[in-house]
Write a structure and sequence with these properties.
The complex is a heterodimer of chains A (220) and B (193). With 220 residues, chain A is mostly helical. Helix content of chain A is 65%, strand content 2%. In chain A, strand 1 and strand 2 form a beta hairpin. The relative contact order of chain A is 0.18. In chain B, helix 6 packs antiparallel against helix 7. Chain B has one domain. The chains are: A mainly alpha (220), B mainly alpha (193).
């Protein structure tokens, strides 16, 4: 599904763009209609790998949101200067730069989070969501729209990770954001925090979303 | 320095910590190209080749960047090396077998953004492997990726002929199958010690 292009519109100021309803739409579409995790099924590797607890899932989501927004803005600024032939290489370099910044930033904020996310911070570089948005959106749209698109997609991604992380943490560990929520007698489903649990939880969410969609389509 | 024997590293990378089913690397091509057995094998071979080359380059880059004390350039250099290797493989396949080039489609350039390839470079550095260890690690990782892809393709070829309810068609079903495969790969966990 290709987003509409706005490149033929006259270049307006950033805030006047914010005011019209189209920009609100660019922001909201990433949260729900084109949600990167549940609808586009992109960026599966970090989605499954770091969603074993809600804390990990949210910090990974926010790190990705930062990289996505910043790289969208920069790529959109440079979209008229980057030659078509080397665009993917240039995008990857821009993304890698922001990921390096994020890596050092997380290390400065919390060593614990840095340890539990491990190599997956560096692997944000190869998250298909980011390169996908750069190619499909930021390379064709103005800075303001790209910023909103990046932010919306990033938060949508965070939401997806949060949904999976919550289920896995509550069932697998009996906790939610490291707080005990299940009664003492609750038998932990260890499988949920192990790799297979990631696959099963995501499959479950996809089934729920698909079922909801089919039901809605049948009603209309 | 790391003293693991080459054999241990290979078994570890291919079975116990299988890249796809135990560490969730390279899920996108795993779900995308595992429809047919034939394409799956060749995709596996292409990824293994890229891994092997980039692993050798990554070892050199790491040594160089440590010498000039610029570790923050590591990630950027790795990704550039991988992107160029993929470009090379793409031109090679296009020349040798246009049919295969067509079958792999968009997933060929997407090897660049295959996390498994970058992960080999990152993990071998963080584990402190020397050159032969790194190369064996990359081969093990590639073998594990190919194995997962081929297993999945075999199952999905059979699923084509079975009746599936609308709600489960597509990605959800593939993920469930992957979950069961991953469950069975956990059986290898005792092998390492």
């Amino acid at each position: 599904m290709n987003p509409p292009t706005h490149s033929n519109q006259p270049d307006k100021g950033f805030f006047s763009q914010l005011a019209n309803s189209k920009s609100a739409d660019e922001f909201v579409k990433g949260l729900w209609r084109d949600n990167p995790v549940f609808v586009q099924v992109l960026g599966m590797c970090p989605t499954l790998a770091v969603s074993n607890s809600a804390t990990n899932a949210v910090s990974m989501g926010l790190a990705t949101t930062f990289v996505l927004t910043m790289s969208n803005v920069l790529i959109s600024m440079l979209r008229n200067f980057i030659p078509k032939q080397v665009r993917i290489a240039s995008y990857v370099l821009i993304i890698a730069t922001f990921v390096t910044i994020t890596d050092y930033m997380i290390q400065a904020i919390s060593i614990d989070i840095h340890k539990s996310l491990g190599a997956f911070i560096a692997l944000i570089v190869v998250n298909c969501v980011i390169l996908g948005r750069a190619e499909a959106f930021a390379s064709k749209n103005t800075v303001g729209f790209s910023f909103l698109d990046g932010l919306g997609m990033g938060l949508g991604f965070t939401f997806g990770l949060f949904c999976i992380g919550t289920v896995r943490e509550i069932l697998g560990n009996g906790t939610f954001f490291a707080m005990q929520v299940m009664p003492e007698s609750f038998e932990k489903w260890v499988i949920m925090v192990l790799p297979p649990g990631g696959f099963f939880t995501l499959a479950l969410w996809l089934l729920i979303f698909k079922g909801y969609k089919l039901k809605k389509a049948a009603h209309e | 320095m790391n003293n693991e024997s080459l054999w241990t590293i290979f078994i570890n990378a291919s079975l116990i910590n299988n890249f796809v089913l135990a560490t969730f690397l390279g899920i996108c091509p795993f779900l995308g190209v595992s429809g047919k057995m034939d394409t799956a094998t060749k995709m596996g071979a292409a990824v293994t080749f890229v891994m092997f080359i980039s692993s050798a380059c990554a070892y050199g880059i790491h040594a160089l960047l440590t010498a000039i004390e610029a570790p923050f350039l590591e990630l950027i250099s790795f990704i550039v090396v991988i992107a160029s290797t993929v470009q090379l493989v793409e031109m090679f396949i296009k020349k040798m077998s246009p049919a295969l080039f067509k079958a792999l489609g968009i997933f060929l350039p997407l090897i660049t953004t295959n996390c498994a390839v970058l992960a080999v470079a990152l993990f071998q550095t963080s584990k402190g492997y020397n050159l032969p260890q790194s190369l064996v690690y990359s081969l093990g990782g590639g073998a594990g990726f190919t194995l997962a892809l081929v297993l999945m393709a075999g199952i999905r070829e059979r699923l084509e002929f079975s009746e599936v309810r609308d709600v489960a068609k597509g990605t959800a079903l593939a993920l469930l199958v992957a979950g069961i495969l991953s469950l069975s790969f956990m059986g290898f966990a005792g092998l390492g010690s």
